[in-house]
Amino acid sequence: MLAVSSPLWAYDAPLQPAAIRDAYFLGQRSDGARETFLAAYVKRFPLPEKGPYVSEIELLTPYAQVVSVSAQHTVGYSAQQAAEDYKNRGDLIQVRVRIELTPTYGAIAPKEKNRGGIPLRTEDFWKSFQITLRQSNGSIGPLRTRSEPIYLESGALAGTQVWLSYDTKDVASAKTTVEVEPPEGGKVRAKFDLDRLR
Q1: Is the separation of the CB atoms in 116 and 109 below 8 Å?
Q2: Quick one: pLDDT band at residue 94, thresholds 50, 70, 90?
Q3: Domain contains 3
Q4: Number of H-type helices and E-type strands within the chain
Q5: pTM above threshold 0.85
Q6: Residue 1 is assigned to a structural domain of this protein
Q7: Are 175 and 136 in contact (CB under 8 A)?
Q8: How many domains does the structure of the chain reveal?
Q9: Closest by alpha carbon to 94, among 145, 130, 49?
Q10: Domain that residue 59 falls in
Q11: Whole-angstrom distance between the N-terminal and C-terminal Cα of the chain?
Q12: Does the residue 5 lie in any domain?
């Protein structure tokens, strides 16, 4: 007889009501349990010698999204609201990439020929970065992408956060790599094992 061991977690999709409730209560905890749980879903990187700084890559499963949203709403947020929010979001894998400007890749863009004035880097500078989610069968395209610029108190552009949403039907419970290739500098890769993430 052949015994096959199932993975410890393997991410859930769709989430059952009990899983949504568990995730909601985990997000409401303040004893360090939610921080420990969510730490497995984000990778942080050192500042490069030159070029833009890809400082964080986060990958959230549907369960981790419920935990994260619950953690952001600790007052007046109910398990019923968490279930409604999950239903409205749908079953998605959410990837977040944080890109920060640096002294060698700053708010002032390289000057183009025949253009006067100081060329400021635009909020959509991230579009020159290639962000790819890969599994063993190749790359997977996002359903949608959005961004939110990061500004200093002075009003100067400091970076951006980019969110990419993927259909869970396209993403297996398997080893997954998020790769960011900036226009300058080396590639940054974050590896996640979705067999071990809930």
Answers
A1: no
A2: very high
A3: no
A4: 4, 9
A5: yes
A6: no
A7: yes
A8: 1
A9: 145
A10: 17-193
A11: 29
A12: no
